[in-house]
Amino acid sequence: MTFTIRPATEADKPQMQALIEESVRELSKAEYTQAQIQAALTTVFGIDSELIKDGTYFAVEEENTIVACGGWSRRKTLFGGDQFAARESELLDPNVDAAKIRAFFVHPQWSRRGIGSLLLHHCEEAARAQGFTRLELMGTLPGVKLYREHGFVAGETVQHDAGNGVFIPFVPMSKTLE
Question: Is 64 exposed, middle or buried (0-12, 13-18, 19+ CB in 10 A)?
Fold first, then answer.
């Protein structure tokens, strides 16, 4: 299989949003409750349009079908799509700040085929080319294994308050680029 990574566009948003929902509903059910999954889709998970505008969010295609999406950011926001209220658009300084790895989702039918690793490597190289020497991310429980395999170090699990008594565990992770 040959996967193509390209910058995501505004026109890709409906297809990527559907992919994100399928990915979360299927690939997260072993680690999160249905209430947590629904709350995450409503309040956190989704597309960050700012990354599309910045050219740092990517679609991974196989035969013109988007099978994954994800990106990196030179902005302060660590996680969350357009609907996430705690967004911070300030630009980071690569001399002191860590670039953010953001919003990785793989369609369930395409999981466990190396797409996440391919996309992560692409994002690391792009951040490095912009002068960043460190990366940070907020990992979902299903994503922690992927990031650990690529040298990210986990911090203490945090409980994100999604409202209505629903808390979603996430794992902050970081890596120094070599």
Answer: exposed
Q: Which residue has the tokens 């979902």?
A: 140
Strands 99-106 and 153-154: unpaired
pLDDT per residue as tens digits for the range 22-51: 999 999 999 999 999 999 999 999 999 999
User: What is the rounded distance in angstroms from the CA atom of residue 157 to the CA atom of residue 91?
Assistant: 26
Is the separation of the CB atoms in 100 and 72 below 8 Å?
yes
**Nearest to 74, CA basis, from 53, 52, 97, 58:** 97
Neighbours of 36 (CB within 10 A): 20
Ordered by where they begin, the domains of the chain are 4-82+103-176 (3.40.630.30)
- Maximum Cα interatomic distance, the chain, rounded to a whole number of Å: 44
Q: How far apart are CA 110 and CA 166, in angstroms?
A: 29
pLDDT, one tens digit per residue, over 66-79 is: 999 999 999 999 88
Q: Which residue has the higher pLDDT, 89 or 108?
A: 108
pTM: 0.94
Is the pLDDT assigned to residue 91 strictly greater than 90?
Answer: yes
| Helix (DSSP H) and strand (DSSP E) numbers for the chain | 5, 8
In whole angstroms, give the CA distance from residue 97 to residue 74.
Answer: 9
